[in-house]
Amino acid sequence: MSGAAVIVALRVAASPEAAFAAFTRDIGLWWQSHPLFQLSRRGDGTLRFDPAGPNGRLVTRFADGEEWEIGRVRHWLPGERLAFGWRLPSFAADQATEVDVRFEPVGAETRVTVEHRGWDAIPQRHVARHGFELVLFQRRLGEHWRGLLKAMAAGL
């Protein structure tokens, strides 16, 4: 996976195991669509890990019932690390990014760090990049991930 990454961290008032469960089990509850970063023109649908676990995949179900596999789980270590592929329906077969999430205890809290990498392999002209130069795109995507982590934390 290429090197350009968006890295966002947020402390949440939960144990690493609880934060991991909220991220994985409850992703369909806290995931919020964003106009710039929708999975497709139909929005984001409802995300879930199916099946939950090391051999799982992240999928979404759109309102019309169609499902899309966003990516396969690469690491599933409850309370420690989660990594999975991230592909939009508009990506070519050879295009993909990766999301790596770490859960680190910090006192009574957990630092959840999301690293979403590989965007330098997606051309600036691609609809997912909206024509943004890489640095600006990464900044905007980082804002989106920060909002998502805040929504996850609110549900803890």
In short:
The chain is built from three helices and seven strands; from the N terminus they run E-H-H-E-E-E-E-E-E-H.
Average pLDDT rating:
95
Largest sheet: 7 strands, antiparallel
Please, how many helices?
3
The SS-based structural class is alpha+beta
Work out the strand percent.
Answer: 25-35%
Q: What does this protein look like?
A:
The protein has 156 residues and is α+β, with helices and mostly antiparallel strands. The protein is 22% helix and 34% strand. It is built from three helices and seven strands, in the order βααββββββα. It has a seven-stranded antiparallel beta sheet with strand order 1-7-6-5-4-3-2. A hairpin with a 5-residue loop joins strand 3 (57-61) and strand 4 (67-77). The longest helix is centred in the last third of the chain and has 21 residues, at 134-154. The radius of gyration is 15 Å and the shape is globular. The termini are far apart. The mean pLDDT is 95.
